[in-house]
Every structure is written in structure tokens, then in C-alpha cells.
Amino acid sequence: MRTGAAGAISVKHFVAPHHKKVGYIGAGVIGKAMARASNIIHKFEEGYVFGLDKKMSQQFADELTQELGFPHYVCDTAEEACRASDCIFTQTPGAAPVLELGWLQPHATLICSGSDQPTKNELPPDVMKKSKFIADLKRQCVRVGELRTAVKEGAMTEEDVYAEIGEVVNGTKKGREGNELIVVDLT
């Protein structure tokens, strides 16, 4: 529930009201928490799901379609889900990137919650470097989040982080300002 709440706060501040298509890379419990919590904040109209287990992905899509009242489609590839989506939740246990920069809408919001240990990584450094990068806690993201990989590979420094989520919530910094690519790193 806590991770879902962080996802909903991210949707509130970083997804434009007219962005209506949501994608999920990973079809597990965390994805469902993100979907349920964000549905309270933002009314998506279509969902796209990709997971390694097709049966699990179909169950995820069927359950959310019924519960949230808008269609969710199972995608054959992560690329298909990304290309269709304005907002993408990533929540996998993977140690390698699950998407590529060329698959993303220029205005996409990526809300990443799968990288929470030094062995996990969902995003390639070029995606993070190109984005308006938001950390839940910068000091934690540089140790165990997506930011860790970008810093390790020299694509970013801690100073490249635009804001911590709290700075946006309290009004110190702005959230979405236009059509920029946004990455939210939740650890």
C-alpha cells in the first residue's frame, strides 16, 4: 500500500491530466497497488500490461479491467506496452533494463519501483540522463535505486536529480511543466 501511495503521488504531480494511457512492466502485486492507488488520483482510459508470465499478465489485465472500469490489454513485448503508454510503471525484480529510450513517448512519465536493491536495475542510463529525474530520497536512490546505475556509469551525478518528491509536493519545485520525459525513482 505504501508503494502504491508513492505511485499515486507521482501520478498526481508528474502525469498531465490529458495523459490517459498507462502501462505496466511487471504484472505482480506492486503493479496492482500502483493501479489501484493511482486510479483514485487520475482517470486513465486504457492500460497496457507486459510481464514475462503471459497467464499472470492476463489475470492482471482481467482483474484491473473489472475493478477499475477501463480496458487493460496484454502486450507481447515491453516495447509494445511502452509505445502505447503516457505513464509507465515498472516493478520487476530484474537486474537488466526492461525498456529503451526509443520506445518511449517524448512526454512519458516512468514511475519505477522495482530497483530497491543494489542488484536490481530497470532503466538504461540514457533514459535517466534525458529525463527530468525525481527521487523519493536522493541519498537512497544513489545507493539502491535506478540512479545508482546512471551514476556508476557516469551518465549522471547526484546533482542531476531535479528534485526529491517532497520538494514537489510542498511546492518548492514544480512537477510536470510541459511535455518533458520524467523519471520517478521510488525506493
Strand share of the residues? 15-25%
Counted by DSSP, the helix tally is: 8
**Main sheet: strand order:** 3-2-1-4-5-8-6-7
Strand segment tally? 8
Q: Would you tell me the overall average pLDDT?
A: 96
What best-fitting shape do the alpha-carbon axes yield? globular
- What is the N-to-C order of secondary-structure elements (H for helix, E for strand)? HEHEHEHEEHEHHEHE
Distance between the termini: 14 Å
- How many strands, which pairing sense, and closed or not: the largest β-sheet? 8 strands, parallel
Residue share in helix? 25-40%
Low-pLDDT runs of 5+ residues are none
Q: Radius of gyration, Cα only, in angstroms?
A: 15 Å
Task: Provide a quick synopsis of the model.
This protein is of the alpha/beta class and 187 residues long. It contains 8 helices and 8 strands.
